[in-house]
Design brief:
Blueprint lengths: L1 E7 L13 H18 L3 E6 L25 E5 L10 H7 L2 E9 L1 H14 L3 E5 L3 E2 L8 H12 L5 E3 L2
């Protein structure tokens, strides 16, 4: 029974300069990637596909700011905010004998939140380090307030939230 790191949607079209704390978030995600590589625990990169993130385009590619090894790292393609929905993720995690997931990536109110809730319902034990996920300001909330809201909501309900 092992653990894996999920890196959700850290793609050029999502990880832009407008992203709240972009530099700190990419550094924090890379720190988690390096820790998992050091422990030889699996890392699964989740890559979103839609009308803006078209397969094969620059926007669709994993950002070069992230320590991602093309053709070496495990990559799962998704077409829905839920990283498990009609993807190879469950099969991949089962083959790796993973029961614990650490969640990182973008954006908190969409793909990250949906994946956390589904993973929780599927019985995975979940953790997240503060600062390893982000989003954008919107007309209702600043990204900072949105992160605080989701961290408060997830912690001890859906996952264990840890400080860096």
């Amino acid at each position: 029974m092992g653990r894996a790191l999920l890196v959700i949607d850290m793609q050029n079209g999502v990880c832009t300069q407008e992203l709240y704390n972009q530099k700190k978030v990419t550094m924090a995600v890379n720190n988690r990637i390096h820790e998992f590589r050091k422990q030889r625990d699996p890392i699964v990169f989740i890559q979103h596909n839609d009308g803006e993130l078209v397969t094969g385009t620059k926007k669709w590619q994993i950002t070069p700011l992230i320590d991602y090894h093309v053709n070496k790292d495990i990559t799962v393609q998704k077409y829905h905010p839920d990283s498990f929905y009609q993807t190879e993720l469950t099969k991949t995690l089962t083959e790796l004998d993973v029961t614990e997931l650490e969640i990182t990536g973008l954006c908190v109110e969409y793909c990250v939140d949906t994946t956390i809730r589904v993973a929780h319902d599927l019985g995975y034990s979940l953790t997240m380090y503060k600062g390893t996920t982000s989003t954008y300001d919107n007309e209702f909330l600043s990204a900072e307030k949105m992160l605080a809201y989701y961290y408060q909501m997830w912690d001890n309900r859906f996952l264990t939230l840890r400080d860096n």
